[in-house]
Design brief:
The complex is a heterodimer of chains A (89) and B (204). Chain A is mainly beta and 89 residues long. Chain A is built from two helices and four strands. The longest helix of chain B is centred in the N-terminal third of the chain and has 15 residues, at 17-31. Classes of the chains: A mainly beta (89), B mainly alpha (204).
């Protein structure tokens, strides 16, 4: 796994797996920009299933509202684990 | 994400189906001896102890009067908090804090769309509207309208940045220092800061 760096364009995964995920539905399959690395943590989606997994990088990923909702002039910054991303976009 | 009670967030939250389910599960766990009576409430009290928006206000006032502290706070909030006698280490593990600073051309607003993540140590227990489906679903989509409903009308050229607390970090907004407050002491400045200001749904 090669960690992303600030400025990298990344795309979020589109799969809608069974069970809990911290990738919000509104941000699935969207392209955004990594603005900061936010530490390293075990993927919450796996922990919710009772799995013990190693930490992986977590990022602040900024999206333009129009890329999420089709309109809007604001940005939304979502905190996502490396496994939520399929970059570089 | 519809609700019959969009105009009454308190009722909406307290009467939510999930609240009834949680109470039921808690009763079952207590009935089977897995939890002591009231254990969850006492753990929550323990977790929330000392948490109040006055803490966040103190951080903001220090940042307003001390440019060096402001820079350190925005760079690494966890490392800067001890300078004002605070930390994010009160829970099960230390939580990362990210402070985002409002500017003339950019306004920040916080949400947790998935649940209600919130920096309790600095802001105290979250207000019920923060946990309502109406706020969580609307503020990511149309923050300018939601802010207007809170009485915050921003210039059209002020960019809005929404932060969704979807993982391990917690956030706090550093509001802009109001004009005409040059003569106030740090303590008096802290008195100007509101909980909504720390979330981004008020200017200060």
């Amino acid at each position: 796994m090669t960690a992303f760096a600030p400025g990298d364009r990344v795309r979020t995964r589109t799969v809608d797996g069974a069970g809990h995920t911290r990738l919000p539905r509104y941000a699935r399959g969207a392209t955004g920009t990594v603005v900061q690395v936010a530490g390293s943590h075990p993927l919450a989606d796996d922990r919710a299933r009772g799995l013990t997994v190693p930490p992986q990088p977590v990022y602040h990923v900024r999206f333009a509202a129009r890329d999420l909702f089709g309109d809007g002039d604001h940005t939304v910054t979502v905190e996502l684990w490396h496994d939520h991303l399929e970059g570089p976009a | 994400m519809s609700s019959d009670h969009d105009t009454d967030h308190d009722t909406d939250h307290d009467s939510a189906l999930i609240s009834a389910r949680v109470r039921h599960v808690e009763a079952l766990l207590e009935g089977r001896g897995l939890l002591d009576d009231g254990e969850i409430d006492s753990r929550i009290d323990e977790f929330a102890a000392g948490g109040t928006p006055a803490n966040g206000a103190r951080v903001v006032a220090r940042a307003w009067v001390d440019a060096g502290f402001r820079e350190r706070l925005l760079e690494d909030a966890n490392a800067a908090l001890p300078e004002v006698g605070l930390s994010m280490a009160g829970g099960l593990q230390e939580q990362r804090l990210k402070v985002v600073a409002n500017a003339r051309d950019e306004h920040h607003v916080l949400v947790c769309t998935l649940c209600s993540c919130y920096p309790i140590a600095l802001l105290g227990p979250s207000p019920s509207w923060y946990k309502s489906e109406a706020y969580r679903s609307r503020v990511v989509r149309d923050p300018r309208s939601v802010l207007a409903e809170f009485g915050v009308t921003l210039p059209t050229d002020t960019r809005i940045a929404v932060w969704d607390a979807s993982a391990e970090s917690r956030y706090m907004v550093l509001p802009r220092r109001p004009e005409g407050t040059g003569a106030l002491s740090e303590t008096e400045l802290a008195g100007l800061v509101t909980r909504k200001g720390l979330i981004g749904t008020a200017l200060v």
